Amino acid sequence: MPKSTLDLGQVFQAVTRSLVESRDQLNQADTIDQNHGDDMVEIFKLIAQAMAEKRGAPPAEKLARAAQLVLSRQSGTARHYAAGLSGAAEQVKGKNLTPDVAMQLVQTLVGGGQATPAVSTGGADLLGTLMGGMSGGADGQVDSGDLLQAGLSFLSSPQGQQVLGGLMSSMTADPGGAPKDYRAKSGAVVTQAMLQMLGGLGKR
Length: 204
Known about the structure:
Structural class: mainly alpha
CATH topology: Serine Threonine Protein Phosphatase 5, Tetratricopeptide repeat
Low-confidence stretches: 115-124, 131-144, 175-179
Order of helices and strands: HHHHHHHHH
Oligomer: single chain
Helix content: 55-70%
CATH architecture: Alpha Horseshoe
Radius of gyration: 16 Å
Distance between the termini: 10 Å
């Protein structure tokens, strides 16, 4: 088990950079207001701001502050991520952000505070679903860092993109059950950026 912990400030800065790169595509995917990319960039800038404000504080305190800041934005996406941040804050209380804990944080954040539902691929959680999509799966000899690296490789494949798309549609559905396609696309950007950071942690 890796002893390193994740720097949340670096994680959310990386996510923000990825969202800036994807901003135009996300705006185009939003057929209602054409501003989802802009909204996501601003949301994650607020999260990064909270990380800077609370530098040196426990992860739970940083995430709770981020939830407060994000909730100040008047959008459904902001409410979704504020709920995810609040849920993640509760989840990581008293814990170090090792890869296993951080994976739970990713799915709680993107899922708006809800546990990741099982999807058609048969998985019950984010990493489990990604691993289930790979031939042969993982055996008991593989540590969390290896799993993360394998997951990142899988995500780069067409099959991995299909699995991730299905996960995001399920995780970002409205309470009534209707998925938001543009939110699924941005959720995939967030998830991939965070997994990249987790993969780096897992190799230390």
